[in-house]
Amino acid sequence: MMQTHVNSYYAATRNPTSDLPILEELVECDVCVIGAGYTGLSSALFLAEAGYSVTVLEAAKVGFGASGRNGGQLVNSYSRDVDVIEQRYGDKTAQILGSMIFEGADIIRQRIKHYDIKCDYRPGGIFAALNKKQLKGLEEQKSAWERYGNQQLRMLDSADIAREVGSDNYIGGLLDMQGGHVHPLNLALGEAAAIIALGGKIFEQSAAVNISYGEPIVVRTAKGVVKAKYLLIAGNAYLNQDLDPRVTRKSMPCGSQIAVTEPLSAKVAKSLIANNYCVEDCNYLLDYFRLTADNRLLYGGGVVYGAREPDDIEQLILPKILKTFPQLKGVKVDYRWTGNFLLTMSRMPQFGRIEKNAYYMQGYSGHGVTCSHLAGKLISEMIRGDAERFDAFASLPHMPMLGGRTFQAPLTAMGAAYYSLRDRFGI
Q1: How far is CA 233 from the centre of its chain?
Q2: Less CB within 10 Å around the terminal CB: N or C of the chain?
Q3: How far is CA 305 from CA 173, 257, 410, 415, 417, in A?
Q4: What is the pLDDT of residues 109-164, one digit of tens each?
Q5: Does domain 9-69+185-250+346-402 have CATH number 1.10.3720.10?
Q6: Is it the case that residue 404 has pLDDT exceeding 50?
Q7: Domain FAD dependent oxidoreductase, which positions (predicted)?
Q8: Which residues contact 360 (CB under 8 A, 6 or more apart)?
Q9: Do residues 365 and 279 touch, judged by C-beta distance below 8 A?
Q10: Helix, strand or coil for residue 272?
Q11: pTM of the shown model
C-alpha cells in the first residue's frame, strides 16, 4: 500500500518534487541508511559529501514522519539540558556534549545557504516563562548556555515579552537568536535533492523488511536488495518494530498534535508575534507556536499517548490557542494533524552500535530538528575514522522503557499527568 504525506499544512505548501523510485533491483553501496527523515538525510548528505556511495530506504515518502510534521522550531540543546547532563554524567561527558549543543542549528543554516533550500528560515526563538520559577530557570539556562559559547541570548522582562508576544500569559522569557524556525518538510525535501545531486540514491515506498548482518550487510525490501559495507538504522518513531528489537525496545513513540489557522492579516499576525520569532513555553508538557510564511498561526502542544482523529486535534489545540490569544476568538482552523516522536527513558538521544558495521541513532524526545542534523555529522565522522564525538553519546546508558511494550504507554502517561499537575501549580 502506497503511503502519502499526512494531510498537513506542510504537505499542502511543499515545494514541487517528483516521486522517487521504488527499489526493484540489487544495489551495492558503501552505506545503507534506513529512514529518510532528518537523521537519515543528514547522515546521507554528510557521507555523500565525503565521497561515500549512499543508498537511503524510505518506507513511505521523504519526510513522512516527524521530520515533515513537527513545529518547525530550531531549538538548541537536547531534551535534557546541560545542567542535567553535568549532574547526571559528570564534567567530562558534559563538556563534550555541551560543546555540540548549538551545532545542529548551525548545520541547518549552512545546508540552507549552501544548497539554496527554500524553507522559509527565520532566526530567533523565545522561551516564555509562565511563572517566577520558570523565569529563574531561564536565567540559569542563559548562564549555562553562555558557558558553552552562545553569546546571542537576551533575557526578556515583562515589558519586553509583551512587546514580542501579544499574550498576557507570560511574565518574561529568554530570546535565543541562534534558534529560529523553518518549513520542516521543505527542509527535508531540499536535503534529499542535495543527496541525489551528489550521486546518492533514495528509494521511497521501499521499507526494509529484513536485515542479514555480516560483510556485506544485506537489507531486503519487498522488491529489492541492498548490499552495503555499513548500515545506519534511522527510522526513529516510524521504524518497523520487528526489524531489530535491539533498537526498538529502547524507546517509545509518543504523539504530538498541531493545528494551523486560516491566514491572518499582516497587522493581526504582527500583533501576535511582533518579530516573527518562534515561541515555546517552559512547561514540562510545553506548548509552542509561530507564524507561517503566509501569516497563519501554527500551534502545537502537549503529549498524547495514542493516535488522534482530526476533530479531536482541533478540540485539543483550539482551546490552547484561545487561552494564549483570546483576541483570536472565532478564528478558523484550516489544518490539523498528528505525528509521533520517539521518547527515551533518559530523554537523551540514543546513538550506538548493534554490530561492528551497523549503527542506530534515535530518540530525540522532542528535540529532534537540530540534534538529528548533528547526528548526521557524527556518524560521518565515525565512519571516516573519528569516533570520539559519536562515542560520547554511545557511552550514555540506553535503558529499555519501563514495563515493556505492554505497560510503557500507561506508565509514561502517568508520569505525564504528574508533570501536568506541576505545570498547573507552578512547582
Answers
A1: 16
A2: N
A3: 29, 11, 8, 12, 11
A4: 999 999 999 999 999 999 999 999 999 999 999 999 999 999 999 999 999 999 99
A5: no
A6: no
A7: 30-382
A8: 232, 233, 234, 244, 247, 350, 351, 352, 354
A9: no
A10: helix
A11: 0.93
